[in-house]
Each structure stands twice: as structure tokens, then as C-alpha cells.
Design goal:
The complex is a heterodimer of chains A (about 140) and B (about 475). Chain A has one domain: N-terminal domain of TfIIb. Helix content of chain A is about 30%, strand content about 20%. Chain A has a 4-stranded antiparallel β-sheet with strand order 1-2-3-4. The longest helix of chain A has 12 residues. Chain B has 2 domains: about 170 residues, VC0802-like (2-Layer Sandwich), CATH 3.30.2130.30; about 240 residues, Rossmann fold. Chain B is about 30% helix and about 25% strand. In chain B, the strands form 3 sheets. Chain B has a 7-stranded mixed β-sheet with strand order 2-3-1-4-7-6-5. Chain B has a 7-stranded mixed β-sheet with strand order 10-9-8-11-14-16-15. Chain B has a two-stranded antiparallel sheet with strand order 12-13. In chain B, a hairpin with a 4-residue loop joins strand 15 and strand 16. The two termini of chain B are about 45 Å apart. Classes of the chains: A alpha+beta (about 140), B alpha/beta (about 475). The interface between A and B is large, with 43 and 48 residues. The complex binds S-adenosylmethionine and zinc ion. The site of zinc ion has 8 residues of chain A, from loops. Chain A: This is Trm112p-domain-containing protein. Chain A: It comes from Clathrospora elynae. Chain A: InterPro entries: Trm112 (IPR039127), Trm112-like (IPR005651). Chain A: One of its GO terms (molecular function) is protein heterodimerization activity.
Chain lengths: ~140, ~475
């Protein structure tokens, strides 16, 4: 699972969801893998305002990944300044900036293959195997 | 606005206008349907330009192509008059272009010689360029629309080709017969692509399927440019079991393998195992700022609970303290199976809509398949939610049942009166037996038993000595 999915995932236990500590889930004993993916500027631009920046920064820290900037980039930060100045409307001609490349690397190329995702509120652990996290709740937690 | 002729495939008729409108919306183009009939492949529309026409049709699954309309009429005399009136000013543009000129008939047609004569009857346009079947500069076509078993066509069109759609290529490429990993519930590829179009999939968007199975919908969405992810209550369907529904195929096959097969892995975020009614996705009430919608669309084919009753996580009865303790003691042991309880399809539909409301961005779409029936008895009501606008209903009919594709638009906050969301919190029915809970399932098996007894009766009448006939077809159950 690519790291971006952690931007959407929280604890599956209903009563836990209202507790702010249930988001984000914390990777533990995580085995990471880089899987190269095509750069997708329109997607980065679209998803940017939906990123929970503080939480993502925290996760990167926990995983020992390069630190994300303190404040979220703006859409303009995603393209090379020179091109942005020329104001080319053609999406194909846009040159992704280093910021875009870094973001792409972290969100769309870094994958959790094995390990656990732990709820910060109830401490329930969700196992990740072969890149697939399991959120099925045991009988006593439904 | 100029008129164009859309040449539809004569298939999935009730989806055609809906797809066309969705594609126009995605392209940001104003489209107006001038003439359309369910039993004809020819539809006339208004579009602002050739570029707009090309954009709309390029991605279409149910249109084969689009033509600039150069003439129409109910006889050849009328057609030629119309061609003079509408298009005479355009002829000179193509005077020296290489060209192709073809004649097609729907439910009828002509011999090659007759076609030759038809083509010659357009000689007044005075094209001097070389005829060329492959890659000509311009292609013209005469369309003849016949009534069944009538010799003369009832209507004629003449047009200049603007664009062909991706229909044939996409159907061929995504054909389930050639997909590495499928299961008995895999949705037909043409319908997954069609669903993606109707759900407004577009490059840069984020789409999710909560019942992904072998990934048919996410693959279709990724093909049209979306970034996708999915989940399923059954982890084996995501990871693969080392087998395939296809006979004789062994080895490790899984959803990610399908994405690799189509070179779409870049657009696949991954999948997780979960129950929709206990989703790990963020679904807090939208008044909390952190939970504004984040999905551009949801596409799915939820479980109907036909063959096996519909199940969600939970226990039939409230657990005793000792039982709770034993779950707690055992859940980390490999092989532990979380308990499941029967659930009603109607309640699941309500849950899906509530989930969509909590996760979709404003104007985001959810497209979901659900069974209906031709039989008045079985009609399942179309679920509704005040924060969702039902934008289209398409029907696919089979012999003994039919299903619908429902598409809703997430209303903007400004469209929804305050307090609406709180008012919809529903008390879901609680029950113990799947057959009581699921009307469709009960009716289905009733119909099945009636069929069985009819067959027995038939066999008896024919005085056959033995009933070797557990013939009631698995095929019907499956689809
Ligand atoms: C009709 S199939 C969808 C097939 C899929 N469209 C495909 O092309 O492979 C329904 C799927 O829903 C899953 N399912 C059943 N109950 C579920 C639940 N409560 N939550 C999530 N998924 C569930 C089943 O395991 C099954 O894979
Ligand atoms: Zn929790």
C-alpha cells in the first residue's frame, strides 16, 4: 500500500473514530519498499488540498523518511518556476518541481509491505501482509 | 451549433444517452440531443465544434464514432437535397484530399454493386483526391436505417467522420477472457468501463471501490486516468489464492498483477481488507473540518447476497463476557476468523450512501449496481439520501432478472439545508436469518423453486424415466 492511503485511514472501531488520536494510524515494524511510478502532476495538484499535512509529516518522521516541509506546498510550488512564469496552459509542458518530485516519492512510490498500523487511541494493531492491511475487527471489538 | 451524427453500438441502450451526457460534462462541453431512439444506432446532437465532438466521443464505450452531419432524409432524393443545402459550402475544402467513402446499413443493406451506385450518386461533390481506404485525409459515410425485413431504408444520413471511439480497442484490451486474474463475480469489462465514464472518472481524480473483488472497477477507472484504491471483506480476493476462476490456470494471481498486466500500476494506491459497515476510512461528520470529502468518486457492485447470505462483521447475538474474552485471547493467533452476522441488502445500501456522503467531495459521483426485477413483486426501491442527487438510472436486463446502475451526485453544502444530515440517521433493522433479511434473495430462491417444480412437471409429462435434471442453470444464478 502506498503511503498516501494513510492520509485516509483511521481506526475501524466505530467508537474510536471520534477520538482525534485515532488519526493517523502509526506504522510499526514497517518494511518499506520503493515502487517507481509515473509522475502525475494533475493528481498531485488535485490531492494537495486534501492532504492532512501535519499528520503526514508525523508519519514520515516515524518512518525515518526525509522530512516534509513545515507548511504544505501551494499548487504553484509543484511546477518549475520558469515554466510557471511563461504561464503555459499545456499540462504536458509543465516541468514538475523538486517539491513535486519529493511528494511523489513519498506519497506514491513509498509502499508499506509488511508491519502493523497502530491506532493512537485504542492501540489496536492492524497487520499489513504482502502490502495489504487487514482491518477486520475481532468479535469483541465490533 | 453544428449538428453531428453519433453512431451508437446497438447495445446497453438505456446507458447510451447517460454516458454521452457524462462525457460531455467531463469535457466541459454543451451537448444537446436533437433526435434519439432506443431502437436506432443513429442519434443527432448539437455540439459547439469538431474539437468538442472529438473530446466527447474519444472515450465513449457505447458510441462507435461521431460524424459531422452533411445531410439526412427519408429517400435518396431528399438526402441529396439536404446534402446540397447543408454542406455545399464545405465541398471545396476537400477537393484534393485523399478520401474514403463507405455505405453502411442497419438491419439491412446493399450488394457491393449497389453500394458503388450509391457512392457514384454523390459525384456532384466533385472530389478529385485519391480514394484511400487506410488513413485517408477525410472519410465520408452514408448510413441507411432499415426496419426489420423491409427492403427500402426508412431513413438516410450522410456524414464526415470526426472521430472514432475507443470502444473496440478498449473492449479488446480489457476483455475478461484475457485478464490474468478474475473470479466468478468479476464484472464484464465493457460495463466497468461504461460505469467509469458515467461516474465522471477523469485524469487526476481519486476513485475508490469498497467491494473491489478482483479489481474490475478500479482498473477501468485507472484506464481513464484516475488514481484508484479499493477494499474487500475477503482478503483472498485481493491477495489472490494462487489460482484463478479460469480452468487450468495455476500460479500466483492477484489484483496488483492485473494492474501490472495493463501497465496501470502507477495509478494503483493499493487495497486493504475491510467491511464497509466497519470501514477504516475517515467518515466523521462533515462539520469537523478535517473530514471534508476526499474521494472524487466511488464505483461498486455491492454483494446482493444471492448465493450466500449477505454478511458483515459482528455476531448474531450479543457476546457473553466469556465469549468476548475468548475472542480477545485468540484474535492475534494466525487463522483467527472474525465472526460475521447476516445483514440486509437494504441496510447495506443505506450504509453505502451514508459512506458516500461522508467521503465524496462536492459534486463527486457514486455509481453503484443493484438488482431490480422485471417482476413487480421484487422491485427494490432506489435508495436515497438528502445529500445525494440521483443523476441517472440505467437498466441491464437478463432473462429472469435485471439490474440497475444508479449514479448519484454529492450535493454541495449550499444545496443541503442545515440539520439534514442529522435527520437521516436511521435505525437499521436487526435480524437473525439472512433469508428473512434479504427480500431479493428470498424471492430469488422462491422463483428458483417454482422453476424446479415446472421442470419436474415437464419431465413427468414427457414420461422420462429418470430426472437427471438438476438443470436449473447455474449460469442464471451466477450473473
Ligand atoms: C459482486 S462482488 C464485486 C466484484 C467486483 N466488481 C469484480 O469485478 O471483481 C461483491 C464483493 O463484495 C465483497 N463483500 C461482501 N460483503 C462485504 C462487506 N460487508 N464489506 C466489503 N466487501 C464485501 C465480496 O467479497 C465480493 O468480492
Ligand atoms: Zn482505535
Amino acid at each position: 500500500m502506498k503511503l498516501l492511503t494513510l492520509n485516509f485511514l483511521t481506526c475501524a472501531i466505530k467508537t474510536c473514530k471520534t477520538n482525534p488520536a485515532s488519526f493517523p494510524l502509526h506504522p510499526r515494524d514497517a518494511e518499506l519498499e520503493i515502487v517507481e511510478a509515473d509522475m502525475n502532476l494533475p493528481f498531485l495538484r488535485n490531492i494537495l488540498p486534501r492532504l492532512m499535512w501535519e499528520e503526514l509529516r508525523g508519519i514520515c518522521g516515524e518512518l525515518g523518511l526525509p522530512e516534509l516541509p513545515a507548511t504544505p506546498p501551494t499548487p504553484a510550488d509543484l511546477v518549475e518556476a520558469s515554466n510557471a512564469v511563461h504561464g503555459s496552459a499545456e499540462a504536458d509542458e509543465e516541468e514538475p518541481s523538486q517539491t513535486a518530485k519529493d511528494l511523489h516519492r513519498i506519497l506514491l512510490e513509498t509502499c508499506i509491505q509488511e508491519g502493523k498500523l497502530v491506532c493512537g487511541a485504542c492501540e489496536h494493531e492492524y497487520a499489513v501482509k504482502e502490502g495489504v492491511a487487514n482491518f477486520l475487527l475481532p468479535g469483541h471489538l465490533v | 451549433m453544428p449538428e453531428y451524427l453519433v453512431r451508437f453500438a446497438q447495445a446497453h441502450e438505456s446507458f447510451r444517452k447517460v454516458e454521452l451526457q457524462a462525457l460531455a460534462d467531463i469535457a466541459g462541453v454543451t451537448l444537446q440531443i436533437i433526435t434519439y431512439e432506443e431502437d436506432s444506432p443513429y442519434c443527432i446532437v448539437d455540439l459547439p465544434s469538431d474539437t468538442a465532438a472529438r473530446k466527447v466521443i474519444a472515450r465513449s464505450i457505447l458510441a462507435q464514432g461521431i460524424y459531422e452531419l452533411w445531410g439526412q432524409g427519408s429517400t435518396y432524393t431528399a438526402l441529396h437535397d439536404s446534402v446540397h443545402t447543408i454542406s455545399a459550402s464545405k465541398w471545396s475544402q476537400y477537393e484534393t484530399a485523399s478520401f474514403r467513402f463507405t455505405v453502411e446499413g442497419y438491419r439491412g443493406g446493399n450488394s457491393t454493386d449497389e453500394q458503388r451506385d450509391i457512392i457514384d450518386s454523390f459525384a456532384y461533390m466533385a472530389f478529385k483526391g485519391p480514394p484511400r481506404m487506410r488513413d485517408p485525409d477525410v472519410a465520408f459515410r452514408v448510413f441507411e436505417d432499415y426496419d426489420l425485413d423491409v427492403k427500402e431504408p426508412k431513413y438516410l444520413y450522410f456524414g464526415r467522420l470526426i472521430a472514432e471511439s475507443c470502444r473496440n480497442e478498449a473492449k479488446r484490451r480489457f476483455d475478461l477472457k484475457k485478464r490474468l486474474y478474475i473470479s466468478t463475480t468479476s464484472m464484464d469489462a465493457e460495463l466497468t468501463l461504461l460505469t467509469a465514464n458515467i461516474a465522471h472518472v477523469a485524469p487526476g481524480k481519486l476513485f475508490y471501490d469498497p467491494f473491489m473483488g478482483t479489481g474490475g472497477f478500479p482498473i477501468a477507472c485507472a484506464h481513464f486516468g484516475a488514481v484508484v484504491f479499493g477494499s474487500d471483506i475477503d482478503g483472498r480476493t485481493i491477495r489472490g489464492t494462487g489460482g484463478s476462476a479460469r480452468r487450468g490456470q495455476t500460479g500466483k494471481y492477484d489484483v496488483v498483477g492485473n494492474f501490472k498486466q495493463y501497465d496501470l500500476e502507477s495509478s494503483y494506491l493499493g487495497a486493504f481488507v475491510s467491511d464497509l459497515t466497519n470501514t477504516p476510512l475517515r467518515i466523521l461528520p462533515p462539520d469537523k473540518d478535517s473530514t471534508k470529502g476526499y474521494l472524487d468518486g466511488i464505483v461498486c457492485d455491492p454483494p446482493y447476497g444471492i448465493r450466500e447470505g449477505l454478511k458483515v462483521l459482528g455476531s448474531r447475538q450479543e457476546l457473553l463476557e466469556t465469549e468476548r474474552q475468548s475472542h480477545q485471547d485468540q484474535y492475534k493467533i494466525p487463522g483467527y476468523i472474525p465472526p460475521k452476522k447476516p445483514y440486509s441488502f437494504t441496510a447495506l445500501l443505506d450504509d453505502i450512501l451514508a459512506f458516500a456522503v461522508a467521503t465524496l467531495v462536492e459534486d463527486g459521483r457514486i455509481s453503484l449496481w443493484m438488482p431490480t426485477a422485471n417482476d413487480e413483486d421484487i422491485e427494490l426501491i432506489i435508495p436515497s439520501h438528502p445529500c445525494l442527487e440521483l443523476s441517472s438510472v440505467c437498466v441491464q436486463a437478463f432473462n429472469k432478472w435485471s439490474r440497475r446502475l444508479l449514479t448519484y451526485r454529492r450535493r454541495r453544502a449550499s444545496e443541503v439545508p442545515e440539520g439534514t444530515l442529522e435527520a437521516v440517521k436511521k435505525e437499521y433493522e436487526k435480524g437473525t436469518r439472512a433469508s428473512d433479511l434479504n427480500d431479493f434473495r428470498r424471492k430469488y430462491f422462491q422463483g428458483f423453486r417454482e422453476l424446479e417444480s415446472m421442470k419436474k412437471e415437464f419431465v413427468r409429462m414427457k414420461m422420462e424415466p429418470k430426472t437427471n435434471g438438476d438443470v436449473a442453470s447455474e449460469a442464471d444464478v451466477k450473473t
